[in-house]
Amino acid sequence: MSETVEIYFPQIADIYQAAKTIAQVAEETPLQQSIRYSKAYGANILLKREDLHRVRSYKIRGAYNKISSLSQKQLDNGVVCASAGNHAQGVAFACSHLQVKGTIYMPVVTPKQKIDQTNMFGGEWVDVVLEGDTFDDSKKAAELFCEQKGKTFVHPFDDEKTIEGQATVGLEILQQSTEPIDYVFVAVGGGGLASGLCGTFQALSPNIKIIGVEPEGAPSMLESIEKGKLVELENIDKFIDGAAVQKVGSLTYPICKEYLHKMVTVPEGKVCQTILDLYNRDAIVVEPAGALTIAALDYFKDEIRGKNVVCVVSGSNNDITRTAEIKERALLYAQLKHYFIVRFPQRPGALKEFVVDILGPNDDITHFEYSKKSSRENAPAIVGVELKSPDDLAPLIQRMKDNNFYGDYLNNKPDLFQYLV
User: What is the pTM of this model?
Assistant: First the structure.
């Protein structure tokens, strides 16, 4: 007879204990009504502002709870973590506060702002090591370092104490809400926060429907749930770095599979538009992972009408140097930014003709690369055009074809398009 494998599930007593542990470093974050989104969806939309922690994400909860649970010997030996940024800052802060030596592995592509913040919070107590292109690459290097040096690995999501720390978000939501909550939307990277919320709500408010939200380019939890087993994705889009992992946790997967109401994915471009809307219209700065839950509301607009809905805004560690890419991805998703190979006749006045006769009255050239390299009749240029409406695309292409300017459309050619965006 085979042995029954006991599956971990966060217990409410441990979650309450975690709340006491982290109270000294993690202040209660606000649960704020969004007037704009409430009006837009005909619902009571509440934002759980985890972006307002001193480390600007909820990760301080799990990191501090985990490190605080270690033995004195483990603390003396030091800790190691791998992170795309937010967990790193939580661990760095905990190390400095508890005076524990930490080594933090981060992907080489981590935004500089997150690296600087990690060093600032950790000070003399942490060393930052940049390793690999993804979180998973960094994690492998960190685990090898742990084995070699006899240190303790502080996992960003697949650890009982980490999960119990993140679960305290749910306690605060229930304590702060004046009315029963119907839905809670939560971003899913490795699944630590979602698993923690499952533990809290199953014990205290089991009727709450938890919606997990992943980036469309990194659907590791969704694919695992659909296939009924842990799946490791070969390639992921790393843009939403706070929620882009190739493989979710062995502890978190069965919890999410059993207790999440639904798992959905959101295109990166839609997330980018949400980031811009939050900044321009609400003066809220969020990172891509922090906007995931709000971006998902469109897919549930009929289901949530008249309901009390919480969106966990998970973090605000955004690098201002990414603004141009965020705007570009938002325009591409909205089908307002298009790239073409335009074949210009090799004669004076061809560019003027293109601008006057081919472009529409509201079309704007935002990208232009051209060099005359031969005496051929037509010479190609790469031209980026921003439109006022997606409906303007077909007429533009037709005018280019009718006047022999059309060469090719690049938006749907990923091998070429990646060099432009």
Answer: 0.90
